[in-house]
Amino acid sequence: MKDYTQFSFIFIGDTHGFLDDFSKQKEIIKKTQPEIVLSEQLQHINLESPEDYEKIQQEKKISNMVAYEEVEKLIALCKEQSIKLKGFDLETFGFDKTLQEVIQGKRLPTHEEEQKIEEIVKKRTQHHLKLLKDNENTSQKPIIVILGTFHLIDEGEIVKTVKNSLLIRPTDKEGKLLLEPPETIEGITYTETTR
User: Fold this and answer.
1) Where are the alpha helices (DSSP H) in 90-191?
2) Distances (CA, A) of 41 to 6, 74, 88, 105, 156
3) Is the dihedral of CA 167, 5, 25, 79 positive or negative?
4) Contacting residues for 14 by C-beta, under 8 A, at least 6 apart
5) What's the confidence (pLDDT) of residue 174?
């Protein structure tokens, strides 16, 4: 697919490190020259001015849940291209310190914590949808949305709700959405689907 200009949003599935996610992000950003990129990994942080970029590049801090190095290349690219890079999630993804330990695999969750995590995931989805609505029609160019592949499943609320969008998602050699680390990267590709 060559003409990206017809879409309001272009979603790029992020594996959070299973693959070299930045390569695909850079490719699409270079092709589309967006004014705005929304990034789940930046959580609640917005980088809209040269001063914002300078500050984060000096502090090198995102949160307990995301290391600066995970988004360093994206930050540098968006700064270089004068793109507004906006956080697309809740601070620490909405998880308090005890739930952060569970998410980071430091311990198993209790039954109550599992329920709480489910509630937070729903809250995050509603927050994502609100931010999409808030940013819709704020640019003449497509808005790039970098979001965990888990949020971009066909049955998910974002995919079912947001129209006039392009989904660029990593898939395995059978064409299944990549939701966990693959046994091999052989045959993995990015599939483009319109909504």
Assistant:
1) 97-103, 111-135, 157-161
2) 26, 10, 7, 18, 19
3) negative
4) 21, 25, 40, 41, 146, 147, 148, 149
5) 85
**87 membership: H or E segment, kind and range:** strand 84-87
The Cα angle at residue 45 between residues 164 and 102, in degrees rounded to 5: 95
pLDDT in tens, 44-84: 999 999 999 999 999 999 999 999 999 999 999 999 999 99
| pLDDT of 175 higher than 90 | no
The neighbouring-strand residues paired with 148 are 14
Burial of 71 (0-12, 13-18, 19+ CB in 10 A): buried
Task: Encode pLDDT of 77-130 as tens digits.
Answer: 999 999 999 999 999 999 999 999 999 999 999 999 999 999 999 999 999 999
Radius of gyration for the alpha carbons in the chain, expressed in angstroms and rounded: 16
Average per-residue pLDDT for the chain: 93
Give Dmax (Cα) for the chain: 48
